[in-house]
Design goal:
Elements lengths: L1 H12 L5 H6 L4 H4 L8 H15 L15 H8 L6 H15 L3 E8 L2 E8 L1 H4 L3 H23 L5 E5 L11 H4 L3 E3 L5 E6 L11 H8 L3 H5 L8 H11 L7 H7 L4 H10 L4 H19 L4 H7 L5 H12 L3 H9 L1
Parallel strand pairs: 3-4
Antiparallel strand pairs: 1-2, 2-5, 3-5
Helix pairs in contact: 1-4, 5-6, 6-8, 12-15, 13-14, 15-18
Length: 331
């Protein structure tokens, strides 16, 4: 509901009565005042759409100049001819900067990790805290949702970072940005597997026109389908504790032969052992960050028989020991 309050406040700043938009979203004035309340994805879609059209501003008042209705559709169309997702996202970021000078988006790749970061300009930093939060969240969800749509694949996030303190509704972030979260960061950014950037775009003009008839769900809802085998294997390694986590067991779970599993992973620039290490590393970092479990228990939880071998492996993954990693997070 905090995000609904930001949208209503944007309308009021422009001298507009939000009553109609609230009715369309089926939110009563009494409900709006309940900060701890939740709204559905469909209500968020209705409210955002009504407010954007009333304001004629798809940025909902967050920038020093309006983004007239249809701006994000124009950005999506301008990137549609890109050869792959990386080119499309780079193009989208560049064109967005031409429309909105308050924010600059930057895509970078380090190793196997792609980072999409937002550089805030002075005007954006002067926004009220809740409006600034919503603006950054809205933009990251927008480009992430569009990227997923371009390649018709859910792009899981390794981590999402935000340059503000954890809000009272921080628990809702797991629904918007599944994966690790870090607040009080230096900038807003999302990180994901860089291999997705090599995927070709699978959409055409007809698909774009159909999507634009109801585009807001891309921003509000998580994309469900995933075309990248590495992520399917990661999901098996993460969730299917009961099966044999060797090639034969994983391949059987995915209705593949072990030979096909290894071949397709190699084509995507990965190996089964590498993915096992990535899943173990992510799980270990999450436990060290979000629990007070001793290192020995963390080691057992991620599949190591003894603490020493876990510490050695963790140093190889992160360049630091588990204890040092935990201390840095607490500083």
């Amino acid at each position: 509901m905090a995000f609904a309050q930001v949208i209503v406040a944007a309308m009021r700043r422009r001298g507009l009565d939000p009553a109609g938009a609230l009715r369309q979203a089926q939110i009563t004035p009494i409900q709006l005042q309940k900060v701890e309340a939740r709204i559905t994805a469909l209500q968020m879609e209705w409210l955002s759409g009504a407010a954007m059209q009333a304001l004629d501003d798809e940025a909902l008042g967050a920038y020093s100049r309006r983004l007239p209705w249809g701006s994000y559709g124009m950005l999506a169309r301008a990137s549609l001819s890109a050869s792959n997702l990386g080119v499309a996202v780079q193009r989208w970021c560049r064109h967005h900067g031409l429309l909105a000078e308050d924010l600059r988006l930057h895509l970078s790749v380090t190793g196997d990790t792609a980072t999409l970061a937002i550089e805030e300009r002075p005007h954006h930093l002067t926004l009220p805290g809740d409006a600034r939060e919503f603006s950054l969240v809205h933009l990251l969800r927008n480009i992430h949702g569009l990227a997923c749509w371009y390649v018709d694949s859910r792009i899981p996030l390794h981590e999402a970072r935000f340059p503000f303190a954890a809000p009272a509704h921080a628990a809702a972030y797991v629904h918007m940005f599944p994966g690790l979260h870090r607040f009080d960061a230096t900038q807003a950014e999302i990180r994901f597997d860089a291999r997705y950037l090599r995927l070709p775009l699978v959409r055409d003009e007809a698909a774009l026109r159909q999507m634009l008839q109801r585009a807001l769900p891309l921003t509000v809802l998580q994309y469900r389908r995933d075309r990248l085998l590495v992520q399917q294997v990661r999901q098996v390694l993460t969730t299917q504790v009961g099966i044999a986590l060797e090639a034969d067991g994983i391949a059987a779970h995915l209705n593949l032969s072990a030979r096909t599993l290894h071949r397709q992973l190699k084509e995507e620039g990965a190996s089964l052992q590498q993915l096992k290490d990535e899943v173990r590393s992510a799980r270990a970092r999450e436990l060290l960050h979000r629990s007070a479990k001793p290192v020995k228990q963390v080691a057992a939880a991620v599949g190591f028989r003894n603490e020493k071998s876990f510490i050695r492996a963790f140093r190889g993954w992160t360049g630091t020991s588990p204890a040092q990693f935990r201390r840095r997070l607490q500083e």
